[in-house]
Design goal:
The chain is an all-alpha fold. It is built from five helices and no strands.
């Protein structure tokens, strides 16, 4: 079964935003996702990105879809249910 190659096209402003997220993002997950989008823009396939970053192919595909749908907001961690933090920020 042949899969269609999928690449995103980024404007210079989008590249700047993703580079900042990749280099200075507060959370590792955001940095990884931004890196994946940048790699795809540079011509790396989903399978190549999967091997570079070490995640499943479906994960990379999901990140690309989230970027296309919501931009940088789509790459942020979503709130999760669960036990509240024991320590407050103060």
């Amino acid at each position: 079964m042949s899969r269609r190659l999928r690449f995103v096209s980024l404007t210079p402003d989008q590249q700047r935003i993703l580079n900042e997220a990749y280099q200075y993002g507060e959370k590792r997950a955001l940095r990884r996702r931004a890196h994946a989008i940048l790699l795809n823009h540079k011509g790396h396939t989903i399978n190549q990105i999967r091997d570079i970053i070490g995640v499943r192919r479906d994960t990379v595909s999901t990140w690309l879809s989230q970027w296309e749908a919501d931009g940088i907001e789509g790459l942020q961690d979503k709130p999760r249910e669960g036990r509240p933090y024991l320590l407050s920020e103060s």
